[in-house]
Amino acid sequence: MEDYSSALKAVENTLRDFIQEVLSKNRGESWVEQCGVTPERIERWKQRQGEEERNIRGRGIEKRLLYYADFYDLPVIMKRHWTLFEPCFGKWKHMEVYLDRLEDFRNPDAHRRELFPHEIDLVLGITGEIRTAVTNFRSQQKPEDEFFPRLEQVTDSFGNVATPQDKTVMTERILHPGDEVDFLATAWDPRDEPCEFMLSKLAFIDNIVDWTRDRRLKWKVRDKDVGKDVFIHIYLRSSRLYHARAWSDDVVAFKYMVLPKE
């Protein structure tokens, strides 16, 4: 089971992804300007993005502007366009209560203590229900999601992000042997059972490769990885006997260029 801090982060990312997915589809490329927050708030997001770019030079940053919004911006956006989100979440008043409670729990000034067990249960219950609602909504177009786990998001240490809508990421990063790239995966399983992850340079492998329940993966670039188009695949599978594919349930890919040190 996830700890409550991981659950809070996961549901926040789920909401950001879903908001961008819904509004970009229904409002077009200018959806940010139409999202419902003030121009001052959007400018603040852009400032944060610029600050992060200056602070972590040499590494990639999160390119999606909504990831620089405060959590309390998300309810404002969703309420403004609730007719688009209602098929997924139902009545706004119900969702509003959930988001208010989550904002309280993630506010560091409101909790300078460890949460009580019943509060942790509440966080896990609310976040689980929201993430399940999003998955169930998507599964109306994909009935297979009712049976197989999926990768919700995979982020590399340069800030590149793979999602269900963008499973292959062209990173435009140049690496060299000796470099290391970290990946952090977030997955959802319809039965809430443990999932396993695996990193591979190969698109098709056999079932003898080591899998891990650790969602933090590392790629150590080696001399034999040198190439113009190098794809690193992050695989997911459940612990069940059946899978969406022959031996895995989901996969995303990141493309890099690896050049010799000299």
What does this structure look like?
It is a single chain. With 262 residues, the chain is an alpha+beta fold. The longest helix is centred in the N-terminal third of the chain and has 24 residues, at 4-27. It has helices at 4-27, 39-55, 73-80, 82-89, 92-106, 117-139, and strands spanning 150-156, 161-162, 168-175, 180-188, 195-200, 216-220, 227-238, 250-258. 36% of the residues lie in helices and 22% in strands.
Basic shape = globular
Q: Biggest sheet: strands side by side, in what order?
A: 2-1-4-6
Derived from helix and strand composition plus strand pairing, the structural class reads alpha+beta
Largest sheet: 4 strands, antiparallel
Strand % is 15-25%
Output the radius of gyration.
19 Å
Number of helices: 6
